[in-house]
Each structure stands twice: as C-alpha cells, then as structure tokens.
Amino acid sequence: MSESGSSAATRSRTALREFDVAIIGGGLVGASLALGLAGTGVRALLVESVAPDSAAQPSFDERTTALGNASRRIFQGLGVWEEISRDAAAIRAIHVSDAGRFGFARLNAVEHGIDAFGYVVPNRVIGTALWRRLAGASGVEIRVPATVEDLDITTERAYFTVVTAAGAREVSSAHLLVAADGAHSAVRAAAGIEAGVEDYDQVAIAAAVTGDRANDGTAYERFTPSGPVAVLPLRGGGYGTIWSCSPQRAAELLALADDAYLDALQGCFGWRAGRFRRIGRRASYPLRLTRAATTVARRTVLIGNAAQALHPIAGQGFNLGLRDAALLAEVIAGAAGDVGAAQLLRRFSDWRAADRGGVVRFTDGLVRLFGSRVPGAGLLRNLGLLAFDLSPPAKRALARVSLGFGGPTPRLARGLPLQ
Ligand SMILES: Cc1cc2nc3c(=O)[nH]c(=O)nc-3n(C[C@H](O)[C@H](O)[C@H](O)COP(=O)(O)OP(=O)(O)OC[C@H]3O[C@@H](n4cnc5c(N)ncnc54)[C@H](O)[C@@H]3O)c2cc1C
CATH no. for residue 49? Predict the structure, then answer.
C-alpha cells in the first residue's frame, strides 16, 4: 500500500500519536501479546472492536479451550495462570475412538510422566483474566471498543486512524502493525496479504453439558460417520462438547429442543461419559482452514487466527496462536532498534514456520483421514488407532503435539522470563 497524498496531508494537520507496536484485535491472542509487551519499555497500542465484557465478544464466548502445557507456562509467565487455573479442568487421559469400529486409543498422563496433558478452560475465563491484568499494565494503551481506518503502510511506519465507538478519531502510527484480528483479518487484506481458504463443509456445535456422573479428567474424541465429537472435562464435573457435522445436519441439530439435542448427541457419542442430562447454550462455527500466504509483510506481522485458522479437531488453533504471541513478544522485547525492521520480521516468520506448518498439516491430515469415505479408509483408521494404542513412540509424538512443542520454543513456553 502506498502513502496517498490526502492521508499524508491529514497527518500533517493533526497531532500524530506514535507507538512502537500497534496490535489490532484484542481477542485471546492479541490480548496475550499486549500483556507480554507490558513493562518491557515498548510503547504499545491495543485496539479491540468489541468490549471484553460484552456478550457479543467473539473470541471469549461460550466455548471452552483445551490448553496444552506450553500454553499453561506462557500464561504463568504472563501472570494470569493463577486466576485461570481456578476454572481449569486437568486432562488426565485422552480417549480416541472410531464409532462402530474396533480401533481405539487411550493415553494416560501419568504413563508419560506428566500430571496432565493440558487443561480445559472456558474462553470467557481466559479473556477476563487477560483483560483484567491488562487494565493495570504499564506501557500498553488500550482503545476499546474501537477500530482502525485509513491504514497506510509505508516503508518507515504504518499510519492509521483509531476510531472509537464514541466517534473520537486519533491519527496514529507505529513501527510495527500486528494483525491479531482473526480469520477474516482486515489488516491482512489492507497489507495486501492473500489467504487461502479451504472449506471443510462442516459446522461445529459447541455446548456445555452435565451428566449423571462427574467427569474423571478424560478427554474423549470420537470419530463418527457424520464428523468428530469432542467431549472435554470441565471444572465442576461437566463436559464441554464440540460436535462437527455437515451444515445441513447442523441446521437440523440447532433447531432441536435441548432434550432432543442431548438424545442426538448421546446417540452419536455413546455412553462412555454416562448419561447427558442438561445442556447450556449452543453456539455454531463454520469450519475452514484459512492460511495466510505469508505471515509478514512491510511493517506488518500476522498472528493467531489472522495467520492461520484451523479445524478444532485437535484443539491446536489457540495453542499455536499463543506461541505466535509469545515468540513475537520475545523478538520485539529483545530488538536492539527498529521493532518493525524487515530482517527482524523475517527472522520471526522463519522461526515460526516449522511449528505453524507442522500443526496445520497435523490438524488438516486428521480432518481428512477421519472424514474420508474412500473404501479402506475405515480399516486404515482402525489399524492406525490400534497401532497407536500399542506403540509408545506414536503416543509420545502425540503427547508432544498436545504439549505444544515443534520448532523453536518461546522462552515463556519453557517457563523462562521473556528477557
Ligand atoms: C468450536 C471451536 C473450538 C475450539 N477449541 C480450541 C481448543 O480447544 N484449543 C485451541 O487451541 N484452539 C481452539 N479453537 C481455536 C481458537 O478458538 C482460535 O484459535 C482463537 O480464537 C484465535 O484467537 P485470535 O485472538 O487469534 O482470533 P479471534 O478469536 O478471532 O479474535 C479476534 C479479535 O479481533 C477483534 N477484531 C476483529 N476485527 C477487528 C478490527 N478491525 N479492529 C479491532 N478489533 C478487531 C475481534 O473482536 C476479536 O476480539 C477452537 C475454535 C473453534 C471454532
């Protein structure tokens, strides 16, 4: 994008507010980055369009998120884990099965010498903890609800106007613009970065349920002819469920009364977790793989869903995005000079490539293997799951993915301070 004469003229007439870093999007990933930069001496701006305590907040809504141990350590480093952990349920075992077939796999955390594979937490709890801590953080200016207009990215700086809900307009600039504005990122588009979109032709229905017995810390993933069903333990004994199915089936399921939906879910998932009795609000999400062609461009970097938005089948999207945020905070805080220098951004992008590529391929591969109607695919799946159950190296590999490792690991994810 080139600097237009009119926007340059507007800037010269108006007081320009200058920042080192402007983060657009204060969802789970953008808010984590902002917190990572707090107190580092970096002058940061965080712009979020929906208030964190609004029922319409799209990032911290009714969903639950399975956090790997690397994410737990990052949150410890950001000073929010203590608050989050009060509402977290530990995943002590993972059970994977294929409906109507013999193959299944079971992993126990103790067998891997760890306390838990991860923790399931309501998104709202994570968002509230991040924003509460941000309110007292130094070095981060916050504009919410607000958005940006007139984005103009030059070789020296990115210029933009922050427009608040009250109608105030602040002409601003930053050395580095961070797109953390989700899968449909407007910043990504304004920076001229293409994104490939593959529609899985599936919709996920998320809902919390309680049953006739409390969970024992097992997370279930069941592959069914209509799509995968995840049943995750929640603090308090219930389960967070995610049922992915065709858009037509999802429309039918969403139209059902609560009791009828619970019966359908039970019929699909089975009885391993007991009888489901009550259900909270259902929310639905169309599932696509959205992948930016590059994660860096002039004065711009993409993180979280703006860089890659995944199918939730393996619970990896946020964990990956949080590692984006943790490593970017580390790179920015450690930069000797210009935090938006091309060389610095290239290094960040190269460091993230292995983790990003690995998690995208792993997640997409799972969707395709378990969604395949090709003759023989069912047998392959069963043999795969059986082999998986018997093979310690394969289990260790999955445990590593669940733990969130792959590529260079950010310092925060290793339990070290940012600098
Ligand atoms: C059903 C489901 C279950 C999932 N479960 C898991 C799981 O168990 N584990 C896991 O790791 N991941 C999971 N994920 C993925 C996870 O939810 C996403 O990876 C995560 O939400 C990405 O966060 P983000 O902050 O990058 O983007 P988003 O959550 O999309 O947030 C973007 C933010 O930017 C704001 N915004 C947008 N445009 C603008 C603008 N122009 N100006 C200012 N602000 C703007 C939005 O209001 C929002 O707050 C799941 C996803 C789904 C759909």
Answer: 3.50.50.60
